[in-house]
Amino acid sequence: QFPFGRRLPCDIYWHGVSFHDNDIFSGQVNKFPGMTEMVRKITLSRAVRTMQDLFPLEYNFYPRSWILPEEFPLFAAEVHMMKDSDPSWKPTFIVKPDGGCQGDGIYLIKDPSDIRLTGSIQSRPAVVQEYICKPLLVDKLKFDIRLYVLLKSLEPLEIYIAKDGLSRFCTEPYQEPTLKNLHQVFMHLTNYSLNIHSGNFIHSDNVNTGSKRTFSSILCRLSSRGVDVKKLWSDIISLVIKTIIALTPELKVYYQSDIPAGKPGPTCFQILGFDILLMKNLKPMLLEVNANPSMRIEHEQELSPGVFENVPSPVDEEVKVAVIRDTLRLVDPQKKKRKDYLLLIIHYCKDLINQCFIIKKNPKRQHIESCKNKVNVRYNYFMCYRCQTLEHVSEAKEELLDAGPAERPDRDAGRSPEAGLPSLCLKQVFPKYAKQFNYLRLVDRVAALFIRFLGVKGTTKLGPTGFRTFIRNCKLSNSNFSMASVDILYIDITRRWNSMGIDHKESGMCLQAFVEAFFCLAQKKYKSPPLHEQVASLIEFCEYHLAALDEKRLVCGRG
Ligand code: ADP
C-alpha cells in the first residue's frame, strides 16, 4: 500500500474490483477491461446464446435461458409450446437477478406465470433459466464446483486451469423440486454464503468432509465408484475453453477501447471463478463465471454469541494459495525479461553467423568493411543482452540463497529461481488444445472486422458511416442489396439493441448488434444452412476483400 502515492510504476498491479481501479500505463494488471460487464448473468447468457446459434451441440452445457423482462413473452410462449407437445414435461425454472451474487434474489418457479414481474423485475432485469432437476449427489446432497481459471492473455489466447477446485455443498438432503420444497434454499442453492447460515453447516477441518471440500476429494470418491474421471476432466476443460471463446470477442472490443493498439498501456491477466454443476449423468453444466472470485482463506467463527473470530480454512488455503502463487509465477515480469533477452541473444547469434558467411562468400575489401561494422554492432548487442541475462540469473541465485538452507535445492540453484517451488497447479489448456477448438472462434473474426471499422480509437460502437464503409470495402452491396437497404438494416438492428437498455453512454451499433447484422447478411448471401457455414463463408469473403484492399493501398503507398 502506498498511502502517500507512488511515483514509480509497478510490474504488477493487483486490483480489488476492476481494471479501472487506477490509471495504469505500463506493467500488468490483474483485471481485463470489460470483464465485470461480460460475466453479468444477462451478458454471459447473450454471449453463450450467440455461440449456441452457431454451434448448438457444442454449447449445450449452458441451460436454456431467457432474458427478462424483454423476452418474457417468448419464454411464456416457448414453455407453453413445449408443454403442449410433451404433456409429461414438468419443468422447473430458476430466476436470477442480473448482476446478483451469493444467491441474492434467486427463486424457483414451476410456470412462467409465477414470475414476479411487478416492480422489481422491471427495475432489475434478470435471467430465467431451466433448472437442472437431476444433479449429481454426494452424501445425498447437491453440490457445485468452483474452478479457478487464469486468462493469461487475450491475444494470443492463453488459458490455464487450476488442477484442484472447491466443492460447495447444500445443507439439506436434495429432493427434486416440487411446489412444496421450491423455497428451500438449503436444498436447492449451493451458495456458501447462504448455507453458512444453516444449522447443518459443517466447517471442514480437512479436505474430504464438511460443507466445503476440495474437488479432488470428490473425484477420488467418484473414481472409487468407477467413474471415468479423465473424461469428466476433459469435459470440464472443454466447457471452460468454449465459455472463454464466447467471451473473447466482446472483451477484445473493450480492450482496444481502453488500451488502444500502438499507445503505451499495460497488459492484462485475470483469475476467473467458474461455477459448474455436475448432472446425475456426470455432464458438467456452466452456472456462472465470477470476475472477482473470493480469495479468502479463512472463515468467521462465532466464539460466543455475537463474538466472531477469523480462523484459517484448510480447504480454501489448499486450493487458493496455489492459484495465486502460480498466477504470479506465470505472469512473472522477470521471467518474461529473461525470455526476451534469450530470444534476442539467439537473434544476434544467428545474425553474426550470417554476416560471417557473407564475408566468406564475398571477400571484396569494401564488402568486408561493411560486414565487419555490422558484426561489431551485433557483437556489442549480443554482449549487452548476455550481461543482462546473466545478471538476472545471478539475481535469481541470490534470491534462492537468501531463502535459507532448507529451501535451497543445491543441484537446481543455477537452473531456475523456481526450482524450489512445488510444481505448477495451473495447467495450460489453450493454446495446448487450440487445434480442437479454433473452428469455434468465428465471432472472434467477426469482432476483428467490427474493430477495424470502429475508426476513432476508444469507442465501442460502430457509427452508420463505419457500417457503410464495412459493406463497401467488403463488396457486400449489389443490385439485390442496395446502400439504402444497408442503412435500413443498420437502423433496425441498432435501434432494437439500444432499446434493450444495455449501454446508453455511446450511440451506435454495439458488437452484438453487428454480429446479428453479420448473421443476417450471411444468411442472405449463402442460402444453404447451417448458419456456422454461412457465417464462415462470409467471413472469408470479407477477409479476402480486405486483404486485397490492404495490398492495393500498400502498392499505392510505395508508388
Ligand atoms: P449467484 O451469482 O447469485 O450465486 P448462481 O447462478 O451461481 O447465482 O446461482 C446460485 C445457485 O443456484 C448455484 O450455486 C446453484 O446451486 C443454483 N443454480 C443456479 N442455476 C441453476 C440451474 N440452472 N439449475 C440448478 N441449480 C442452479
Automatic annotation (TrEMBL):
Q: Name one GO molecular function term.
A: ATP binding
Give the keywords, sorted: ATP-binding, Ligase, Nucleotide-binding
Q: Which PROSITE patterns match?
A: TTL
Q: Membrane-spanning residues where?
A: none
> Where are the coiled-coil regions?
none
Biological process per Gene Ontology, one example term:
microtubule cytoskeleton organization
GO terms for cellular component = ciliary basal body
The name this protein carries in UniProt is TTL11 polyglutamylase
Q: What is the lineage of its organism?
A: Eukaryota, Metazoa, Chordata, Craniata, Vertebrata
